[in-house]
Amino acid sequence: MQGGNILIRNIIFDIGQVLAEFRWKEYIKELGFTEEINERIAKATVLSSYWNEVDRGVKTMPEIIELCVALDPEIEEEIRLFYKDRSTMVVEFPYAKEFVKQLKEAGYSIYLLSNYGEENFSYVKDIFTFMPYVDGKIISYEVKTIKPEPAIYQALLDTYPILPDESVFLDDRKENIEGAKNFGFHTILFTQPDQAKEELRRMGVRIET
Length: 209
Known about the structure:
Number of domains: 2
CATH class of the largest domain: Alpha Beta
Structural class: alpha/beta
Strand content: 15-25%
CATH topology of the largest domain: Rossmann fold
């Protein structure tokens, strides 16, 4: 687990766009409305400031839905349909299980640090095939804070016996990476699995191609 002067013991994954696809555009399209309505639904939901509140887990879903409806009352019915069943909005990437399994079997501890609302996470927590290889997780709704707010990284450190300089954090968003760097984590800005694996190998992490 030694790479130069780096000793990596822990691999920390974001979920969305790293281990699973957040396919909100496809999900909205599948609702069957016009392109114009689709854009309005998106602006009132996933592209609104209230979507972060879904992940934060302080407001209830009924409260959030009402706030989103208030953004565009003319499409209230469509917005409510969007929120009715989000079970197909996130789909695990085909490579995810093997990626995590390889690292786990190589002796690394695996953690998740992800922004996720309670209902949305309930759809996937029992069907993600990489979950059996995970040693611990901090999901935003559980701790009422979201990346890149410092409190969520602190929650990870407070909950599990890990040291930032022995850990590498993979996330697809630059601001979340910067938040982790502030705590001393090694980081990888994830774009696709081969790139991430190559960067892990440069840190001395043992992972196959």
